[in-house]
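Extended Data, panel c. Modelled sequence:
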Amino acid sequence: MIFRILDSREVSEEQLSLWLSEMEPEKREKTAAMVGEAKPARVCADHLARTMVKVVSGAKEVRFACDRLGKPYAVDLPLQFNLSHSGPYALCAVSAHPVGADIQVLRPVKDALIRRVCSPEELAYLCAQADRSLQTARFIQLWTVKEALLKCDGTGIRRELRTVNTVTDGNLSVPGYGLYTRLCENYAFSVIYEE
């Protein structure tokens, strides 16, 4: 499993335009209509996937499609990949096995959301941190683990999120999967993969 993060603010407009032109027509059209930070981050995510899948597979060209639940895949290649973008950041993970990735910019979170999506173990994990700003950052990181897990298993956010527990013995953990997660200054990200 490999992953890469790209900050779209470090990419020139000319490069973004070139990468946009390389997308499949339908995705290119949807992306071109976007506004704000989401557009360059989505272009960067697609570029990361395209580049990483080519490097890992040795393929000269790659085509992407989505399954019936919306999970992207590389057509006619035995690799799995997953994308995420938030704010100016794009994340892509590539593996020979199922993989899920999520990145989220740190931002304020309402207590009601935390109570709605966290398991009892996750709530205890968050409450163990007295500092409110660090508690919020830990929730964002926990969220990235939860979303990456759901993306890895191919279901996405289609079930009661409190039933998806990402804390074991007071630590972020997903038994049966590999997990790489980091809380950075401006964002948190997680990659989950079948080993």
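The beta strands are 2-7, 64-66, 72-74, 80-86, 89-95, 99-105, 167-168, 171-172, 178-183, 187-193. This feature is highlighted in the accompanying rendering.
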